[in-house]
Structure formats: C-alpha cells, structure tokens
UniProtKB/TrEMBL annotation:
This is Transcription elongation factor Spt5. Heterodimer composed of Spt4 and Spt5. Interacts with RNA polymerase (RNAP). Belongs to the SPT5 family. Belongs to the archaeal Spt5 family. Pfam families: KOW, Spt5-NGN.
Amino acid sequence: MTMASEFGNKIYALKTTANKERKVVDDIVKVLEDHDEFVITAIMAPDEVRGYVFIETPDEYARMEQLVRLVPNARAVVRGETDFAEVEHFLEPKPAVSGIEEGTIVELIAGPFKGEKAVVKRVDAGKEEVTLELYESMVPIPITVRGDNVRVIEKAHED
C-alpha cells in the first residue's frame, strides 16, 4: 500500500541532530539551490517533534538518502513513508496560550526577566498574552508578556 498524496508525493521523516532541526531545513534549502536533481515540495520541522524533519517529495527513498549525505546534522532517513495523517495536525497553529490558565506557574524564557518564575494572573487568548506576577519580587507588579515567552512549570490546581 502506497501512501502517496493525490500529487504523487510521499512524506519522509529525516532523523537529525537534536535541536538542529531548523538548521537542517536551512541546509536542505541551500542544497536544493545547488542541486536541481532533488525535487522537494515541502519541508516541515514542527517544534513538538525533536530530532526530525519531514520532507514531501515525489522522489524515492534512495534519493532522500543521497540528500541526507549532503546535509550536515541530517543523520538518516526513517525507513518507509510517513502517512499524511501523522503530520497533518502540525499544520494547524496552536495558540501560544493554550494550556495556560490563571494560577499556572510559569518560567519566563525570553526578555529581561528570563529565568524568573511567575504566577499567571490573567490570560488574554485573543492577543495571545499572559499577565504575570513574579515570585521573587518584593512588590507584586503585574507584567504582560507574549504567551510564547513562557514555559509552563506547574499547572493550576483545581480545588
């Protein structure tokens, strides 16, 4: 059973060095500029999947193995094809504040307060922002940051 799309393309998973997925995508694009024998219609490196890049192509598995040899930090092509249903959910962006609610404990991962822990006081899903109060501050001053600038440490407890 083949898993080719209606356009005759297949999706392959490339194993990469962890945390080098974006670099691998950039390097694949550079290889494509220099080598016109590769036909790639889409490249995807979802944040949720560490160590893998997905490639859509009409080319065969052996051609993808040749590509891997030309790309630093690309390790191997996973045997077989990936079904579109397995990667389809990565194509819909999730709001940056999904899973964050009032009372959630977060760590700031960007900005001047990077590394600080805080408690979420308000979530604005429309603007994808959260209002926080820093744990360590003497005076509770609310700060508002983008939802993608925080990492959830502990979910709010339901009482």
